[in-house]
DUF1858 domain-containing protein (Oxobacter pfennigii), 75 residues
Amino acid sequence: MSYILDLSKSVYEISKEHPDIIEIMKELGFESITAPGMINTAGRFMTIPKGALIKNISMDKIKEVFKSKGYEVKE
């Protein structure tokens, strides 16, 4: 069974549905996501595509990693 990763939702919303995305995002280069309060502050308005743009991380790489972890990526 795959999980749906809706890229239009905020990181906060996604993390509440799928808490394991925090560790996956950390592995992808979003190290600050585990900082205390980050999900509850910036995560409320930040989406994965916006974060990827800021951190200069390829969306293709992000999609590939999430797909390998059993997610279906919805854009």
